[in-house]
Amino acid sequence: MQIYFPIKVLDNIIFVKIFKCMQERILIIGSSGQIGTELVIELRKIYGNENVIASDIRPSCDAVMQTGPFENLDILDEELLRNIVKKYKVTQVYLLAALLSATAEQNIELGWKLNMRSHSHVLDLAKDGLIKKIFWPSSIAVFGPTTPRENTPQYTIMEPNTVYGITKQAGERWNEYYFNKFGVDVRSIRYPGLIGWKSAPGGGTTDYAVEIFHKAITDGEYESFLSENTSLPMMYMPDAIRATIELMESPSNNVKIRSSYNVAGFSFTPKRLSEEVAKHIPNFKMSYKPDFRQEIADSWPSSIDDTHAKNDWGWELKYNLEKMTSDLMINLKEKYKKFHNEQKNTDIQ
Ligand SMILES: NC(=O)c1ccc[n+]([C@@H]2O[C@H](COP(=O)([O-])OP(=O)(O)OC[C@H]3O[C@@H](n4cnc5c(N)ncnc54)[C@H](O)[C@@H]3O)[C@@H](O)[C@H]2O)c1
Fold first, then answer.
1. What angle do CA 155, 244, 307 make, to 5 degrees?
2. Could you tell me if the CB of 68 is within 6 A of ligand 1?
3. How far apart (Å, rounded) are the C-alpha atoms in residues 300 and 26?
């Protein structure tokens, strides 16, 4: 008999098999980054603090470090990875350690090595029967300049021209290969650019859409490294975290695509975002000085078709540009206010 119980993931109720949930031990690799920080916090609410092990080569924020286990893990050290998996009897791995698009372009050897080796180390854990399920994120960077840019389909021409995109495309092929040949239960999403306020972005081409909010509040102005009319697909972090957990909780039969799923988010240009920010920060000024990241952005889709994710595992977007900006502004202004008050108190002492 399967018993399901409801859990709340970022204001949404999803149903999880009760016994399964109690038995899971989850290892998050690269947990101190933009996505990992928020994912650890959400997964600990569902599975219990002790059952979600954070790991990275650098420490995380207090909300992660003080609520549950943390391991210093360089994912390139396969022996240490295996020891940690055995020590905690890990059943699921979320692999988030990677060099992102802009950073990988500046260190192509490390980009290739880190993104590929980390992936095969984790896939082999499942092949060898040590873990049961893997989440590995892909990206819209799998597409390239020859891909149709508007409403980019799930299945289309994929000729990425960045080292990051090449590793993501190779990773998707690896996923499908390990699923077909060895029955590895690996699940994946092609994230668009992700925007959150809890943690800093890690060197991607869409980072401008996070930086703008901080600079708007602190300086009242921002210089964008992408040109004003560069339209890219983006997603607010609560939606991205929910998509990830919903995909991982879906019955295996519903996960029909094992390479990686398109998820759309919403698309906007730096100019459109600056207009939205200006509604919350009067006199906000935006200027544009495109750098090397412009070429990367120009090779990516401007919007995505995610029909397969909707049909297969019921994916549904909650936030649009307006809703995201309002929510983000409230939270970020509060965060800066708290920070200033703490600084003031320290000065007085
Ligand atoms: N953030 C986005 O907009 C976005 C979009 C598409 C895909 N993704 C993918 O999602 C994943 C996570 O992205 P993110 O934005 O959280 O990245 P991030 O750069 O913020 O975090 C990555 C983390 O990996 C850690 N790390 C680096 N080398 C490591 C090593 N050798 N061993 C262990 N940890 C190591 C870093 O310290 C960092 O904390 C990546 O695979 C990325 O490609 C992110």
1. 35
2. no
3. 32
Closest CA to 187 of 304, 101, 93: 93
Give the list of residues 6+ apart from residue 192 with CB closer than 8 angstroms, or none.
140, 206, 232, 233, 234, 235, 263, 264, 265, 304
Domain limits for position 105? 98-337
Ligand 1 atom nearest the C-alpha of 164 is 43
Per the structure block, which two tokens stand in for 301?
Answer: 């889709």
Please list the residues that pair with 219 across neighbouring strands: none
As beta bridge partners, residue 53 has 27
| Nearest alpha carbon to residue 67 among 40, 99, 102, 95 | 40
Chain position carrying tokens 């080569």: 57
How far is C-alpha 247 from the geometric centre of its chain's CA atoms? 13
pLDDT of residue 16: 61
Instruction: Provide the domain count of the chain.
Output: 1
Query: Quick one: CA torsion of 40, 46, 52, 58, rounded to 10 degrees?
Result: 10
CB 301 within 8 Å of CB 149: yes
Q: What is the pLDDT of residue 202?
A: 85
The two three-digit tokens of residue 213, written as one number = 């909010």
Known catalytic residue: 336?
no
| Centroid of ligand 1 to alpha carbon of 97 (angstroms) | 4
Looking up residue 143, the CATH number of its domain turns out to be 3.40.50.720
Q: Exactly one of 4, 47, 94, 164 is catalytic; name it.
A: 164
Cβ(33) – ligand 1 distance below 6 Å: yes
Task: Work out whether the CA dihedral 91, 79, 34, 40 comes out positive or negative.
Answer: positive
Counting atoms of ligand 1 from 1, which one is nearest the CA of 114?
Answer: 31
Mark the ranges of the chain whose per-residue pLDDT is less than 70: 1-9, 11-22, 347-349
Q: Is residue 59 part of a domain?
A: no
